[in-house]
Amino acid sequence: MPYAENHGVRIHYRVAGEGPPLVLQHGFTQSIEDWDDCSYVAGLQADYRLILVDSRGHGASDKPHDPSAYTLDKRAGDIVAVLDAIRIARAHFWGYSMGGWIGFGMAKFVPMRVDRLVIGGQIPYARSMEGTRRMVRIGIEQGGDAFVAASEERFGYKASPKDRVRMLAADLDAYLAAAQDRDSLEDILPTMQMPCCFYVGEADPIYAEAKTASQLIPGARFFSLPGLSHAGAFERSDLVLSQVIPFLRGAVDRH
Length: 255
Prior knowledge:
With 255 residues, the protein is an alpha/beta fold. The protein has helices spanning 33-37, 40-44, 72-85, 98-109, 130-142, 144-155, 161-168, 172-178, 207-214, 232-235, 237-254; strands spanning 3-6, 9-16, 21-25, 49-53, 91-96, 114-120, 196-201, 221-225.
C-alpha cells in the first residue's frame, strides 16, 4: 500500500491507468473507493494516469485528532507530497466537495503543480462548518447508525451497504477535527490562470454561489446537473464524465 509523507502525516494513494496524470480527491466521509464505486475510474483509466488520494483523516491515510493538522495549506501539501513521491511535476486536479476545497487550495498555494482544474460541488467563500460538526457529534454521542442517518439527511443520499461499513468504521474524532470553518478564497478567483471547469447539482444549496464563483475566474467553464443533490451530482458519473472528459481533452490537445 503506497504512502507519501507530509511532515509526519502519511497519505495513502493509488495509481491506476495510463496517460496524462489526473489527481482525484474525494469529499468528506469518502475515500478513494468512491471513485471506483461510482465508475469514475472505469471511465477514465484508459486515457489518464489516475492518482487517487485518501485525504488526511479518511481512508487509509493518517487521522490526526488535532484541528491544526487540517489547514488548507497542509491539505494542498499532501497532494504535492504524493506528486513528488511518484515524480510528477504537474497534473490535472479533480476534486469533489471537500476535494474541491482542496482544489482551491492547490490554486492558492501551488498553482504551478496544476494543469487543468475540475471542481465539483464546492464554493470558495467563507463557510461555517458547524452543521457538519453537529453531524459528526451525533455519531460520537449516539453511535455509528445515528451518524449514518445524520449524514444521509445532511448530504441528500441513501448510504449503500458499502458506504455504511466504511462510515461505521470511521474515526469520528478525526472527522470532527477536519470539519473546520473555512476562510474565503474569493480573492484568488481572478488570478487563477489554469483552465478551470466547475459543476454542481441544481438541487445543491450552494448552486447559485458556485455559478457566481465560476464567473469570476477568467475563461472558466461551468455546467449544472438539473434535479441532482450534492450527493447525486457525484453519484451520476455518466452525466459528469460526458462533460468533464472533453474539458480534460482540451489540455491533451494543447500539448
